[in-house]
């Protein structure tokens, strides 16, 4: 156990480290990619339907 993790436990808190952080970042990135795709779709819809602009 590292000095940092010992200090975290002594303080009564938790920390994300190592493999847990790596996995969390991967899951977060995949969710963000899906959200980015949805944002682009909504943006195009807004321009096409509400502003009556074409996707050109």
Commentary on this structure:
The chain has 56 residues and is mainly alpha-helical. The protein has one domain (17-56). 73% of the residues lie in helices and 0% in strands. The chain has two helices and no strands. It has helices spanning 3-10, 18-50. The longest helix has 33 residues, at 18-50. The chain is rod-shaped. The mean pLDDT is 81.
Label the structural class: mainly alpha
Task: Give me the strand/helix succession.
Answer: HH
Per DSSP E runs of 2 or more residues, the count of β-strands stands at 0
> How many separate structural domains?
1
- The residue fraction in helices comes out at over 70%
Q: Report how far apart the termini are.
A: 57 Å
Broad shape: rod-shaped
Q: Can you summarize the main beta sheet?
A: none
Average per-residue pLDDT, rounded, comes to 81
Strand content: under 5%
Low-confidence stretches: none
Number of helices: 2
């Amino acid at each position: 156990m590292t000095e940092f993790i010992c200090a975290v436990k002594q303080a009564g808190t938790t920390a994300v480290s190592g493999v847990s952080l790596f996995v969390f970042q991967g899951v977060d990135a995949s969710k963000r990619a899906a959200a980015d795709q949805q944002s682009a779709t909504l943006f195009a819809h807004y321009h096409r339907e509400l502003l009556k602009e074409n996707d050109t």
